[in-house]
Every structure is written in C-alpha cells, then in structure tokens.
Amino acid sequence: MMKTVKAAFAALALLATPALAEEADKLVTVVTSPDAQTQLMSMVLTMQAVQMGRDVQILLCGPGGDIALKAAPESATAGQPPKGMSPQGLLQAAIKNGAKANVCAIYLPGKGATPDVLIDGVGVAAPPAMAGAMLGEDTVVWSF
C-alpha cells in the first residue's frame, strides 16, 4: 500500500512540474486591503514583477484605491520599515516603469469623486477590459 501511495505522489509531482516551470507573461495585482503593510508588500512584489519584465496591471479597489489619491491617507504615503518606502511611492515607481494602474470602476462614484482626485498615471478600469485581462491564459492574478 505504501509503495502505491509513493508511486502516486511521484506521478503527480511529474505531472505538476511543467505547470510550475511555466512563467506567466502577465500579472494583474488586485489591492483591496486597508492595511498599510499589506498595501506596501503588494507593491513590493508587483514592482519585482515589473523589474522581471512582466506586463503588469494594478487594480485598486475599496480601501486599496486610497493609495491612488492625491490626498491619500497618511498610511499610504508614510514610509515604512525597513527601507522607508510607502505604498503610494512604490505604486508611482511601478507606473513609471511600465505598469498600468486603475481604480475600480465603482471606486470614484462610491466616493462621490472624479478622476482628477487621482495621482498621475492612475485611471479608471473598464470592467470588460479588466475582466479580459484577468481571464487571460498567460495571466496570473494576485490579490491583496
């Protein structure tokens, strides 16, 4: 019985290896967390993907959208240890390096605001285009 179980695990490992070896060309990072540390880590990892040459889109919804505001809460702009980076600062760096960033389509209407409250480089997501990006065969979606 133990031999059969070991053989089954070995077969599964061999089948899974090609899937693990393939790298996605595209990344969609979805940020909804109100937690500043989670927001920062989402941007740290997203920036790593940008630096690795991936096609990156960032979707900011709910409290996650606040990091894209010109008048963002201090939690989005204050530097955090260990390197003094902020979620908004890394968002801006990712955009500068080629990432596309948007707030959810319902974010601004929910705040009673217009796109002019957003920092440069951040737009408003079009639901059909974002759904298409998230469903792409060679796309990975990270959610924070």
Helix content percent band: 40-55%
By DSSP (H or I, 4+ residues per run), the number of helices equals: 6
Cα(first) to Cα(last) distance is 42 Å
What are the segments in which pLDDT stays under 50 over at least 5 consecutive residues?
Answer: 2-21
Helix and strand succession? Answer: HEHEHHEHEHE
Walk me through the structure.
Helices cover 44% and strands 17% of the residues. It has helices at 2-21, 36-51, 74-77, 87-96, 107-111, 127-135, and strands at residues 26-31, 55-60, 100-103, 122-124, 139-143. Strands 4-3-2-1-5 form a 5-stranded parallel beta sheet, sandwiched between helices. β1, α2 and β2 form a beta-alpha-beta unit. α2 (36-51) runs parallel beside α4. The protein is globular and about 35 Å long.
Summed up:
Helix content is 44%, strand content 17%.
SSE blueprint:
Elements: H1 2-21, E1 26-31, H2 36-51, E2 55-60, H3 74-77, H4 87-96, E3 100-103, H5 107-111, E4 122-124, H6 127-135, E5 139-143
Parallel strand pairs: 1-2, 1-5, 2-3, 3-4
Descriptive tags:
144 residues; alpha/beta; five-stranded parallel β-sheet; 44% helix
